[in-house]
Design brief:
Oligomer: single chain
Order of helices and strands: HEEEEEEHHEHHHEEEHHEHHEEHEE
CATH architecture of the largest domain: 2-Layer Sandwich
Helix content: 25-40%
Number of domains: 2
Number of strands: 15
Number of helices: 11
Distance between the termini: 39 Å
CATH class of the largest domain: Alpha Beta
Radius of gyration: 20 Å
CATH topology of the largest domain: Ribosomal Protein S5, domain 2
Shape: globular
Bound molecules: cytidine-5'-monophosphate
Length: 369
């Protein structure tokens, strides 16, 4: 059990009440990370505004081990969290409803307003996974309160970056504290896996992990050396089920162990031959953008490159942030979609509680062109 859940339940009063003071932030640099929470009273069960920043992911390795009887695929994937953040503001309400408001925000909306397809669509509040996550959690935990949620999106959608799953994980984590439910992580993880195969990874807060089963069995990894990442979301997105429908599972699946060792050892030189994504081939049958992106990245001297998840986002690993920015400028000039530079992350999500009327919290940022 991690500290978030153990300590949050210890400090819970069972009833929400009005916070009088701004809760101090015990995490590094004034933010509260999952592992830091619970070292004091963080406003669990109080009114006020909760805010969570939750990252995107890339798949450094994705192999299919076979088809399952439930229609899903047995997989082995290595996911890494990257510092492109959606943010979620959560206000507890006495009315027993979930009101979700969504918007694209800086770096995306400002530059790509005229071509919203470059970053994808945000599902309507009624169908959004955040509403589904909170509704399901309210039912299962028999919560009588409701919430108003403002979701600010920066992670492009239909891209294989796990934005929706990340939002769902943040919603569960925040609601668990804000509604003072204080479920243990195992219980929350099981709910997370009902919502989507990638949601447990984001709930785990691991900077990187090997994920097995449907994707819900998480073995966290620690980076020895963290590469910078340049990502491109082309103007076309892909639907995950459609990509999986075209997949032919391999007879001899690849092994992720060499990559896992490289992550643990921090050797930059070995990266080139370690990335793999079994979904890239079927995704390439559905859009010609992947071929174009592969061509563009192979000209730029990145350490390694491939598609993330079921696409269409394509990424390259770089030696450092400055190199990633230089390559991003070239890719931006090639006019192949929305280009983002990010680092791989440490712990996440960061969360904060502010009393009514207090100054809003200044955010972490990712560069975006
Ligand atoms: O679990 P999630 O809703 O993210 O999955 C989306 C779709 O991806 C599923 O409907 C399924 O078609 C496919 N999928 C799969 N095997 C997995 C994960 C996802 O076939 N392990």
């Amino acid at each position: 059990m991690n500290d978030l859940f153990r300590n949050a339940s210890a400090s819970g009063t069972g009833k929400p009440h009005q916070g009088r003071t701004s809760i101090s932030c015990l995490g590094k640099r004034g933010v509260v990370s999952f592992s830091d929470l619970g070292n004091g009273d963080f406003g669990a069960g109080k009114f006020g505004t909760w805010e969570a920043w939750t990252p995107a992911k890339i798949n450094l390795f994705l192999e299919i081990l076979g088809r399952r009887s439930d229609g899903y695929h047995e997989l082995e994937t290595v996911m890494a969290a990257v510092a492109i953040y959606d943010s979620l503001q959560f206000r507890v309400q006495t009315e027993p409803t979930i009101a979700l408001h969504t918007t694209w925000t800086f770096g995306i909306r400002s530059k790509f307003q005229a071509v919203p397809h470059v970053v994808g669509d945000i599902p309507s509040p009624a169908t959004n996974i955040v509403t589904r996550a909170l509704t399901l959690f309210r039912e299962r935990a028999e919560v009588r309160l409701g919430a108003t949620v403002q979701l600010r999106k920066r992670i492009p959608s239909a891209a294989g970056l796990g934005g929706a799953s990340s939002d769902a994980a943040a919603a569960l984590a925040v609601a668990n504290l804000a509604w003072n439910v204080n479920w243990a992580p195992e219980r929350l993880e099981s709910l997370a896996s009902e919502l989507g195969s990638d949601v447990p990874f984001f709930l785990s807060g691991a900077p990187a992990a090997v994920c097995r089963g449907r994707g819900e069995q998480i073995s966290p990894l620690e980076w020895k050396w963290r590469p910078a990442v340049v990502l491109v979301r082309p103007p076309e997105g892909l639907s995950t089920p459609e990509v999986y429908r075209r997949l032919i599972p391999p007879l001899n699946p690849l092994d992720c162990q060499p990559l896992v060792q490289a992550i643990g050892r921090g050797n930059q030189r070995v990266w080139k031959n370690l990335l793999a994504n079994r979904l890239q081939e079927p995704a390439g049958q559905l859009t010609c953008w992947l071929q174009r992106l592969k061509h563009e990245f192979s000209r730029r001297g990145v350490l390694a490159h491939q598609m993330s998840g079921s696409g269409t986002c394509y990424f390259g690993l770089c030696r450092n942030f400055r190199e990633a920015q230089r390559i991003a400028n070239c890719l931006h000039a090639a006019n192949i979609g929305h280009v983002i530079v990010a680092t791989t992350t440490r712990a996440y999500p960061t969360m904060r509680w502010t009393r009514e009327g207090a100054e809003p919290w200044k955010s972490p940022k990712s560069a975006s062109s």
